[in-house]
Design goal:
The longest helix is centred in the last third of the chain and has 23 residues, at 177-199. Helix 1 crosses helix 2 and helix 5 (131-139) packs across helix 6 (177-199). The chain is globular, with a radius of gyration of 16 Å. The chain contains 6 helices and 7 strands. It has a 7-stranded mixed beta sheet with strand order 1-7-6-2-5-3-4, with helices on both faces. 38% of the residues lie in helices and 16% in strands.
């Protein structure tokens, strides 16, 4: 994916989302200025990858893991691809998607993941899958929790909050079952803590 195409998609989508879903963005200073990182976000809509990408400064280029079905949508596909979508087969252990994600982190880019794996339209907390924790631990990169205060309603505000980096250093790069369960729980608690802050 070329930088010019990424910039075009970013520039094209940002004013659209500004118009349709006025927003308040907090915590952008928590995003690392350079180097790879994993952005873990709650999932309330198929629009989430596009919305989040358009809220992050263009110079901090992002990639997103997204269900492969989004790449079959004629309207969304150009933007999903343009903004760095990585197709994931959710029904199987998608080794290609994992390898691509690790390369994204190694190359110093941000990687967005929705650990819930499926949407919760009313933002009810649902179990989170261990894939995000596994990729972050294997990549040895910071994890940034984020919360989208949906749902999306035309001309209603949709806020997004970026939290402080999570410290997972005590896990090292272990990826055994117990480690992934504990790391995933830490990620989940950080995301939903942002939800509580948004409501206060």
């Amino acid at each position: 994916m070329g930088k010019k195409f990424y910039s075009f998609c970013w520039v094209a989508l940002r004013p659209v989302f500004d118009l349709l879903y006025p927003r308040r963005v907090t915590g952008l200073e928590n995003l690392p200025a350079e180097g790879g990182f994993v952005l873990c976000i709650n999932h309330c809509s198929a629009l989430d990858p596009l919305f989040v990408s358009s809220r992050i400064p263009r110079k901090r280029r992002m990639y997103f893991m997204a269900k492969k079905e989004l790449f079959e949508h004629k309207l969304l596909r150009p933007f999903v691809v343009g903004l760095g979508g990585i197709p994931v087969d959710r029904g199987n252990a998608d080794l290609t998607a994992i390898r691509t994600s690790m390369k994204v982190l190694k190359d110093g880019y941000g990687l967005g993941i929705f650990p819930q794996g499926t949407r919760s339209k009313d933002n009810t907390p649902t179990p989170m899958l261990p894939g995000a924790a596994m990729i972050a631990l294997r990549g040895g990169v910071p994890v940034i929790p984020a919360y989208i205060d949906g749902p999306y309603r035309l001309f209603h505000r949709v806020d997004i909050h970026f939290g402080a980096p999570l410290d997972l250093s005590d896990f090292g790069r272990r990826c055994d079952h117990d480690t992934l369960v504990a790391a995933t729980d830490r990620i989940a608690r950080a995301i939903w803590a942002l939800r509580d802050c948004a409501k206060s």
